[in-house]
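FORM 7B: Structural annotation worksheet

SECTION A. Query
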Amino acid sequence: MHVPDVLTIGRVSVDLYTEQIGVPLRDATTLRKSIGGTSTNVAVAAARLGVHAATVTKVGDDPMGEYVRDALANTFGVDVRWVGVDDHLPTPLAFAVLDPASDPHVFFYREPAAPDQHLTLDDVDLDVVRAVPVLWIPASCVAWEPSRSTVHAVLDARARRAHTVLDLDWRPMFWASADEAAAHVAPLLDHVTIAIGNRAECEIAVGTGDPDEAADRLLARGLDAALVKLGPEGVLVALPDGTRERIPPFEIDLVCGLGSGDAFGGALCHALVTGIGIVDGARRGNAAGAIVAGRMMCADDMPTPQDIDALLASQGAGGH
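SECTION B. Predicted structure
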């Protein structure tokens, strides 16, 4: 059994970006194709940083599905052993409209359902789940069945081994209500060791968007670390030993607001695998997110270690 360094589980899509910035979708004239989906982008970001990353997801038996599998394996270097193929459902699309670039609109085409909503235990190797150094799961995985039951079975098999990361990943369009999301997301905290999310996502998971209170409530669930993303204010890192550090953001010329969180996730995964540590991992994650925000795409524009080192050095941020 060849175990990767990082295993992510969750969504995938073919993302189509409007190349005209500041115009609605109806007025766009050209689109650029790439890979999307939170967990998939985290795997891409981690692979770009040199770790062996794999993802568990599923595509349709169609040309877009062929593109996803080929691009992941041959362009981005992601292990696709657990990228399954659904014989009935199409590979989902997502249109990213840079209007405005700071807060792009994403239109999801996942009807009648996306293949990744139908992940089952046949799609996962539980021996790998138990052994992988970093397991990364977005909370959106539990928005649907049978994916929800599969995630619970995976977490049971994992038995809260370090490092089990929950990306709080609040996507309102995937849920009937915030209350429904909270009812399914909050219990996941008892099965993971690290949680990461922005203020709105913390509100769903622990009932408050106040960063310090959210960190306290997350740590009270037995976590090894809580990371609260603060947008333009950086990120708060809180540990059970009392460490509480606000990592400042990096100044960049914004091109596209998509993908920064996934770049952060890939850098954090790299830090966990290599033993850099949570605080320095968050610092490198901030740098990775800033780099992607200064570029057009998500997966295609994930930074290299050299990119991150150069930005840290240019702004005197240190880190490893």
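SECTION C. Observations
The longest strand covers residues 53-60. The radius of gyration is 18 Å.

SECTION D. Sign-off
Analyst initials: ____
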